[in-house]
Amino acid sequence: MSASEQKLTRKDFVSDQDVRWCPGCGDYAVLSQVQKVLPELGVPRENFVFISGIGCSSRFPYYVNTYGFHSIHGRAPAIATGLKATRPELSVWVVTGDGDALSIGGNHLIHVLRRNLDINILLFNNKIYGLTKGQYSPTSEVGKVTKSTPAGSVDHPFDPIALALGAEASFVARSVDVESKHLQEIVRRAHEHKGAAFVEILQNCNVFNDGAFNDVTDKATKADSTLVLEHGKPLVFGRNRDRGIRLRDFQPEAVELGGGITEADLLVHDERNPALAYLIARLGPPRFPTPIGVFTAVERPRYEDALNQQIAAAKAKSPADLGALLNRGDTWVVS
Amino acid sequence: MLDGAATPRKPVEARDTVVIRFAGDSGDGMQVTGMQFTTESALAGNDLATLPDFPAEIRAPAGTLAGVSAFQLNFSSHEVFTPGDDLDVLVAMNPAALKMNVGDLKSGGILIVDREGFNEQNLKKAEYESNPLEDGSLRRYQLFQAEVTKLTTAALKDLGLSARSVFRCRNFFCLGMTSWLYHRPIEPAEAWIKERFKKTPEVVEANVRALRAGFNFAENAELFSVSYEIRPATIAPGKYRNITGNTATALGFVCAATKAGRPLFLGSYPITPASDVLHELSGWKQYGVYTFQAEDEIAGIGAALGAAFGGAIAITTTSGPGMNLKAETVGLALAVELPIVVTDIQRAGPSTGMPTKTEQADLLMAMYGRHGESPVPVLAAATPADCFLMAFEAVRIAVKYMTPVVLLTDGYLANGAEPWLIPDPAALPDVPVAFRTDPGAFFPYLRDEETLSRPWVIPGTPGLEHRIGGLEKEYLTGNVSYAPTNHEQMIRVRARKIAGIVREIPPLTVSGPPEGELLVVGWGSTYGSITQAVRDLQAAGHAVAHVHLRHLNPLPSDLGGILGRYRRILVPEMNLGQLVRLLRAEYLVDAIGFNKIQGRPFKVSEIASRCLKLLGKESLA
Known about the structure:
The complex is a heterodimer of chains A (335) and B (621).
Chain A: H1 26-37, E1 48-52, E2 67-70, H2 76-86, E3 91-97, H3 98-104, H4 106-115, E4 119-125, E5 128-129, E6 135-136, H5 160-166, E7 171-176, H6 180-192, E8 197-202, H7 214-217, H8 222-225, E9 226-228, E10 236-237, E11 243-248, E12 251-256, H9 274-281, E13 290-297, H10 303-317, H11 322-326, E14 331-334
Parallel strand pairs in A: 1-2, 1-3, 3-4, 4-8, 7-8, 9-13
Antiparallel strand pairs in A: 5-6, 7-13, 10-11, 11-12
Chain B: E1 12-14, E2 17-25, H1 30-43, E3 47-53, E4 68-76, E5 87-92, H2 95-101, E6 105-114, H3 120-125, E7 142-146, H4 148-155, H5 163-167, H6 170-181, H7 187-196, H8 201-220, E8 227-229, E9 238-244, H9 245-260, E10 264-268, H10 275-282, E11 289-293, H11 297-309, E12 313-318, H12 320-336, E13 340-346, H13 363-368, E14 378-380, H14 386-401, E15 404-410, H15 411-415, E16 417-421, E17 467-469, H16 484-499, E18 510-511, E19 516-523, H17 527-539, E20 544-549, E21 551-553, H18 559-563, E22 566-573, H19 579-587, E23 592-595, H20 604-614
Parallel strand pairs in B: 1-8, 2-5, 5-6, 6-7, 10-11, 10-12, 12-13, 13-15, 14-15, 19-20, 19-22, 22-23
Antiparallel strand pairs in B: 2-4, 3-4, 9-16, 14-21, 18-20
């Protein structure tokens, strides 16, 4: 019985390499959830490929017992593109971070999203450069004091979700490193999506940016600080499910339910509406809870399908005769 | 052929070799004219070489010096190696074209101009104080003033075309004239026009009429008193076509991938003068060719590397500025030991430099332009047609040795054309590719004993799941390793692997005496100029030899011995002396550089003169 025919378990996806993230790093939790989901996806282990760039998160492929490629800073989406285009049967995953994907590799990220290759991108956002020991990142808040910004950073951050939506991503979601079930579900949905799936995972760097997402991870605050998106459901949040988001004069507004305001007044989430997704993407602290879940999931043609269809059509139309190719154009015979 | 062409009524003189240049405004269709004259000449059985020369601006302001576009062709009844030094014939469509090109016309050469193009406005744009057609400054040449615009208009008058459309047919009128002058058949150009403009029959009619009108005018008018015959050259038998370096490069890659039985994947970002390879390959999808126009140069090579990981024959094409950007990924490819071919179609640098002009100043970058100890094989094509063989060879070496390979061509080879004896695909060598599928005793970096290359294992292979990456690897397992001695071992084995490619290099061909006074060593596109110069010198009795390098890393094993057999070594290069530096470092020889960095290839005469100077002689005789 070949490996691909056996029932896979989490253990099949654990490599023989020691995991070397800092103790307490949020990456461990993400790795663990991904390893739990992979055996359930119905994909032979040898058909999984994990491709990463540079950074703490990019060590991920070494720890997953599939095919893996730890590449160079920011370029994983480009490498994944060449692989997926020519080998569409593979399940290709890009593991990246806020510096890797949004700073040095920003161009590749937006283009892989607009092309809509059927790959899954897991962006670990810890709002800091960890591997280089603590410089601010393109998702760090303004005023971030780090080794490279002792007086506080002055540049405005990206929101990864809004960026992905702007790049025409067909699947955009957010989860949290410590939300095991939610994260598993999002990873599964990313896999099931036929097209580029972008997942931002809020991930704690307990060494250089500890507590960056405390409001969404602390038991005491998370119910009030997190908006869990569910397709077709009103945008309700809060410990007592008594708060919600409504639209007034085209502006989102956080409201208390009751006193004449009911769920019927709230925005209803629709994953098929990227415009709504963008509006929701703009929510977040301090005025709003942080949305997590699937912002948008829409179907559109995949790059590798279109590319391979063109090749198949050309093959069907004319044979691959090298002689004919070499003899094209004006020829003459010297005797 | 048209009536009368085979038996012209005017006297016929024989010529051995003719160098002609068509020059006009960028919008005047000079490249088309030159290409059609080339096809006619090839079909007439001449050997030939071409050199297009056009501005980077797609449409510089009409009539200005910056907007001049030219196409040069050397056609001959004997073997030719270059587009020629000085011009026998110049066709100038306007004053700017005249000004930019007349300096290359031989004294007594034929100068054909469109007289109406020399109006006050155009003279001013070309910064002429007085009309050169009238002020006697062209006295040294045989000046032929044709009223091209008026005659073309007359030939097309009943077609109801706009003045602008008529104006655009002038190039075919000139092609007709020059075709008559040199006994070229015009049928190929007619066939080309019919195919090119098949959707607009009135344009076909207009251009064909202009072509025929030019031909008939040249025959009947009092303008030319003689015509010239250039007999067919003695050329190896077989079937030929004209081929540019870029087309040859593209064909070489398709053939190699087909021979390997794998799809070809090109990741590329548009850049002059490399884009034509992308264009060509994009049209050949039935051969299993994937072309990916990437978001940037880095993604072009990155995608190629991803495709190589998946088992494709993966290539990327670029020019100097793109090479800079690809350097990091070349380093990754050599660390993970996956095969890709990086083609650098060199152009004049640094920075944006002169994008449409040629240079060979990227050799040291190809050799050393990466951080760390990062050797890669470097190949260089010598002629436009040689691009086919070297592209093929680059793929063969890349997959056999699991390494990135740099292939150097340049703008001169890329756009220049020469007749190509079309190879039989069946006679091309095999490109064996064997993916490892056996899980027994598998290690990702277990090396082949002879080649030292690691196994190519593609994702989707059960039981061989493994991880690769840019971090230093443990010698056998490929696991990340920071062990000091392991690092040195890996550095050395990667270097040994590349050095071992020397076994693939055939013995060098020395043209000329096997030892003696002077050896000219060249690489890349200087082949033509050096070959012709050395032949001319040898014909004049001088003991000069030529050896040309197509493998720059590793260098051929017999090169050191050859260098040792000559008293003087001259290395002409279109850079400040890059190969000469390698030769001096590698072989401790006192090689002398000869350098030209003008965006143009060496003239034969320049190389011949330099050789004569070294030989202590004044002139050829």
